């Protein structure tokens, strides 16, 4: 609630409550020389003043709802990723305000913010595709009917605003779905950073079956769902250019991914069986609490901004398991080598995973049952990179004992660690062993 006394002061008027008048400001009396006797309802004051000083709450993340029959649609044409995103965002907006159907409007900037992307080129992309998208059709087949029709009657782009009119035939597949059941839902920013249109479509088709964990498609049917029925005649091309690339992108985004199995009829691949894996916010190892993620976000957000990048929180959350030091190291390398990539978030995820893989490989050579011991040694080895040998073992041991003591290890516990790992640590620092 707003502080009404502040609101009234800001309006510089008199409020009448139960026939008693209360002057708000002496300046008003001197200027006007009389009181305005006007009955003011507090709610109206709040409306007209806009509750000055009150913070505006952020909108909830935009949710996309589609009837399962719509998710299963056959695409006549090969849509671009931008076209898919515009369709889904418009669908999310109309679902939130069903009374406005078939009309929905939004700014390109609003669309970009909701998607969690940072690309000025989207204005020209949206303007270009406005005329094309009204001609592209989908086929929806239900138990009762089957038909081809476009998503929209019309799209108008004007001064940064997108005005869309939906096709009336699509209304049952977008509106009041929670009452009907049989719908698929996901957060719109999930597809915001997807670069490939096939990633968006396959994500939706698998998201629908995520609770089951498996889904099998006839190969030709899958191509129709993706809008590539007449493309990739050779299965090997379809596998490398779609199945493998989509998997790679989904692995980077870390919401849902898959493994797949080819089912053959003779020597020909006839079906694809997907093993669906939910990986929301990456695999945080089961050890990280929400408080850990919150602390990481508080450190990571300003750090990323300092390096000039704009990355959605959902993606930053997924990096919690790697730690702030690893993230900083990756950002420093990108700056040092002037790394220029189109999909910054996906690139950072790939590098963090690669570094993590190297870390685990090195850690596996350390003789310790608990991860804490391995982590102390690995951090010391990482910080010792670039050390010019020879470094005597007593110097290394003295450095390490301080770290272990600080972490609560007794002298006996440290001696055991050194006995089992001292030689390996010495050899790594003196470049006599491969990490």
Automatic annotation (TrEMBL):
GO terms for molecular function: DNA-directed DNA polymerase activity. It comes from the Bacteria. Transmembrane segments: none annotated. GO terms for biological process: DNA replication initiation. Residues 64-206 form the Initiator Rep protein WH1 domain. InterPro entries: Initiator_Rep_WH1 (IPR000525), WH-like_DNA-bd_sf (IPR036388), WH_DNA-bd_sf (IPR036390). Belongs to the initiator RepB protein family. This is Replication initiation protein.
């Amino acid at each position: 609630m707003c502080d009404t006394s502040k609101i009234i002061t800001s309006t510089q008027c008199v409020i009448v409550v139960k026939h008693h008048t209360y002057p708000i400001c002496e300046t008003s009396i001197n200027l006007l020389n009389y009181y305005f006797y006007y009955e003011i309802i507090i709610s109206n004051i709040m409306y007209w003043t806009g509750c000055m000083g009150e913070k505006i709450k952020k909108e909830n993340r935009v949710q996309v709802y589609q009837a399962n029959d719509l998710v299963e649609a056959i695409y006549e044409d090969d849509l671009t990723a931008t076209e898919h995103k515009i369709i889904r965002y418009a669908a999310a907006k109309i679902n939130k305000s069903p009374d406005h159907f078939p009309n929905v409007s939004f700014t390109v900037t609003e669309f970009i913010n909701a998607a969690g992307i940072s690309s000025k080129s989207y204005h020209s992309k949206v303007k270009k595709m406005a005329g094309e998208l009204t001609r592209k059709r989908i086929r929806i087949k239900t138990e009762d009917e089957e038909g081809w029709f476009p998503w929209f009657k019309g799209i108008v782009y004007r001064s940064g605003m997108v005005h869309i009119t939906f096709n009336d035939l699509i209304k049952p597949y977008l509106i009041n779905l929670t009452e009907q059941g049989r719908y698929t839902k996901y957060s719109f920013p999930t597809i915001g950073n997807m670069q490939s249109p096939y990633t968006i479509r396959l994500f939706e088709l698998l998201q629908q079956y995520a609770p089951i964990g498996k889904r099998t498609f006839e190969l030709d049917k899958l191509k129709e769902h993706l809008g590539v029925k007449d493309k990739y005649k050779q299965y090997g091309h379809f596998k490398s250019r779609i199945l493998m690339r989509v998997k790679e992108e989904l692995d980077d985004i870390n919401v849902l991914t898959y493994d797949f199995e080819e089912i053959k009829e003779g020597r020909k691949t006839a079906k694809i069986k997907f093993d669906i894996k939910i990986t929301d916010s990456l695999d945080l190892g089961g050890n990280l609490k929400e408080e850990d993620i919150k602390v990481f976000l508080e450190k990571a957000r300003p750090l990323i901004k300092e390096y000039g990048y704009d990355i959605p929180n959902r993606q930053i959350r997924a990096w919690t398991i790697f730690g702030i030091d690893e993230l900083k190291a990756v950002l420093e390398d990108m700056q040092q080598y002037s790394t220029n990539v189109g999909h910054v978030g996906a690139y950072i995820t790939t590098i963090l995973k690669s570094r993590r893989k190297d870390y685990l490989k090195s850690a596996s050579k350390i003789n310790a049952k608990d991860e804490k011991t391995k982590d102390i040694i690995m951090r010391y080895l990482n910080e010792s990179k670039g050390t010019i040998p020879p470094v005597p073992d007593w110097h290394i041991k003295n450095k390490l004992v301080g770290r272990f003591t600080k972490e609560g290890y007794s002298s006996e516990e440290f001696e055991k660690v050194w006995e089992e790992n001292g030689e390996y640590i010495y050899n790594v620092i003196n470049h006599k062993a491969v990490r």
